Amino acid sequence: MPLFSDLNDQMAKYRFRPDQRFGQNFAINEPLLERMVELADLNAKDTVLEIGCGTGFLTEKLVKKCKVIGYELDRNLAGLLRGRFKDEKNFRLIEEDIVFAKLPKFTKVVSLPPYNISTQVMLKLISSKAMFERAVLVFQTEFCEKLTAEPGFPDYNYLSVLARLSFDPKIALKNISPASFFPKPESYSSVIVLQRRDAPKVAQSGDFIFFIKNLFRYKNKNLSNALSNCLSQVRRLGIKDEKMRKALENSGIGDEKVSLLEPEIFAELFSRISR
């Protein structure tokens, strides 16, 4: 049965409609879901995190490969999922908000998260202690381009730095038509693959995330001026002004524009000033 017909049957049976409070756009493109599973390269030893299981179209494909931990906040959809997978030993449903949840252990992420929490989802995954191997995610194309942006490009921002420090991010499938979803989102989507890489210890630190986010408010200034402008925020982390000044002098990058610096430079600088 085509996924759109299946979705209509589910909506009639469980009496629900897509709820924009939860950012719901259900995937009805089966080849897209199959490609996501293929990109994840799953095996029986994996445990997959799925964020926003929805009607379980993707979940159904994942549980055939490995264990799945699925998060779903919508009570109607949680009831649907419980019924659909009541006899499925590979599926565990958690009815919590992923943004505030304490994540369990998992090895990979395969998911189509609600677009309205894209930033929160990425920050959650970046700071996760699970040290998962790979993530295959669908976001708006514009958001994916920010995650993969390199220094000097207009889209380069604090999320680019954080993503590139912990992962090798690559867009695997670009500009997926809005017709692949119901209801249709306003923009095109893309599949991004985040492959884990060796990262500096500070990359997952909440303090570093706070530091880099504030610094990039002044991305078009040189590093010295940007730090001066967010000095009050930096001081909240217990970083001394003198230590920061010496680190800048020793590094020789004070005159470099923030938006031109490689992610590793920010990590090294923060490591020096936060010791």
UniProtKB/TrEMBL annotation:
Keywords: Methyltransferase, RNA-binding, rRNA processing, S-adenosyl-L-methionine, Transferase
GO MF term set: 16S rRNA (adenine(1518)-N(6)/adenine(1519)-N(6))-dimethyltransferase activity; RNA binding
Positions of the Ribosomal RNA adenine methylase transferase N-terminal domain: 32-198
PROSITE patterns (UniProt xref): RRNA_A_DIMETH (PS01131), SAM_RNA_A_N6_MT (PS51689)
Chain segments annotated as transmembrane: none
Alphabetical list of Gene3D superfamilies matching this protein: Vaccinia Virus protein VP39
UniProt xrefs under InterPro entries: KsgA/Erm (IPR001737), rRNA_Ade_Mease_Trfase_CS (IPR020596), rRNA_Ade_methylase_Trfase_N (IPR020598), rRNA_adenine_dimethylase (IPR011530), SAM-dependent_MTases_sf (IPR029063)
Pfam family, one: RrnaAD
Residues given in the record as S-adenosyl-L-methionine binding sites: N25, G52, E72, D97
Enzyme Commission designation: 2.1.1.182
Top-level taxon in the UniProt lineage: Archaea
Enzyme class, broadest EC rank: transferase
SUPFAM superfamilies noted in UniProt: S-adenosyl-L-methionine-dependent methyltransferases (SSF53335)
Family: Belongs to the class I-like SAM-binding methyltransferase superfamily. rRNA adenine N(6)-methyltransferase family.
Family annotation (NCBIfam families): ksgA
Name the UniProt record assigns to this protein: Ribosomal RNA small subunit methyltransferase A
Species annotation: Candidatus Iainarchaeum sp
